[in-house]
Amino acid sequence: MLPNSNGNYTGKVAFITGAASGIGRVTALAFAREGAAVVVADVSEQGNQETAHLIEELGGQAIAVRCDVTRSEDVKAALAKTVEAFGRLDFAFNNAGIEPRKPAPTAEYEEEEWNRIVDINLRGVFLCMKHEIPLILKQGGGAIVNTSSGAGVIGIKGSPAYTAAKHGVIGLTRSAALDYAAQNIRINVVCPGYIDTPMMGRFTGGTDEGRAKVIAQEPVGRMGKPEEIAAAVVWLCSDAAGFVIGHAMVIDGGQTVQ
C-alpha cells in the first residue's frame, strides 16, 4: 500500500483511457494512491509511459498500453493486457477525448471534423464499455465512469460535433447504467467544466488573454483543477457511491448554472 493511502482499492484494477496527460493522468495517480493497480491507455505512447512511471515512483503498480479507442481491436487488446498483467478488471474511467480544431456553425461544419470528434468522443466510449463490461461482470461487479463535459448539458455555439458527442455520452451512460444496474455494475458520468489541463491550454491558445476569457465564464472565478475531477471519479467508483446509478455529475464551478 502506498504512503498516505487508505488502501480502499487494494487488490482492485483500474483501466483509464486518455491517461497520458491532464485529467486522465491525475486520475490514474489518484487510483494508485488508493491502492489500485492501474492500466494507463492512450495513443500517446510517451505520455502514457510517463504516467506509468509516475505511478511506479509512488510505489504503485502500473502498465502502459497504447490504445486507439476508435478501434475495437485496440480496445480489446488493451483490456487483454490488463487481465494478463493483473488478472481482473474492477474499474474503468473512459476519459479519452479531443477538442474541436476550430468553431464553425452547423451548416458550415466539415464532415471530416464531425466524424473525427464523434468517433473519438462518443464511439470510443461505447467501444470501451462494450469490451470492459464482460470483464467486470466476471468479477461480480464494479464501476465505470465516463467523461462528458459541460457541453453535455448545454449547447455550445459553433461546436455541433463536440456538443452532440458529449450529450451522447450522457445518454449512452444512462442507457448502459440501466442495462447493468441489477448485475452490480454502476455506470456514471462526469461533466467537467473548464479544467486547467494541456487541452485547455490549446483551447485558450496558451495566452493570458485566452485564460482570462475562460475564467470570466466561471462564477467561481477560476478554472477547475484536474484533481477535483479525479476525486469525483474515485468517489463514484467507491462503496460510498453505492446508490449512485446513471448520474451525470457536473463539476464546472457553476458555469452551466447561469
Number of helices: 8
Would you count the extended β strands for me?
Answer: 7
Low-confidence stretches: none
- What is the element string, with H for helices and E for strands? EHEHEHEHEHEHHHE
* Overall average residue pLDDT: 93
User: Radius of gyration over alpha carbons?
Assistant: 17 Å
In one word, what is the shape? globular
Topology:
Elements: E1 13-17, H1 22-33, E2 37-42, H2 45-57, E3 62-66, H3 72-86, E4 91-94, H4 111-138, E5 142-147, H5 160-180, E6 185-192, H6 198-204, H7 208-215, H8 226-236, E7 248-251
Parallel strand pairs: 1-2, 1-4, 2-3, 4-5, 5-6, 6-7
Task: Quickly describe the structure.
46% of the residues are buried. The protein is of the alpha/beta class and 258 residues long. The chain contains 8 helices and 7 strands, in the order βαβαβαβαβαβαααβ.
Descriptive key words:
single chain, 258 residues, alpha/beta, Rossmann fold, 7-stranded parallel β-sheet, 7 strands, 45% helix
Report on the architecture of this protein.
- This protein is of the alpha/beta class and 258 residues long.
- It has one domain: Rossmann fold (3-Layer(aba) Sandwich).
- It has helices at residues 22-33, 45-57, 72-86, 111-138, 160-180, 198-204, 208-215, 226-236, and strands at residues 13-17, 37-42, 62-66, 91-94, 142-147, 185-192, 248-251.
- Strands 3-2-1-4-5-6-7 form a seven-stranded parallel β-sheet, sandwiched between helices.
- Helix 1 (22-33) runs parallel beside helix 2 (45-57) and helix 4 (111-138) runs parallel beside helix 5 (160-180).
- The chain is globular and about 45 Å long.
- It starts with 12 loop residues before the first strand and ends in a 7-residue tail after the last strand.
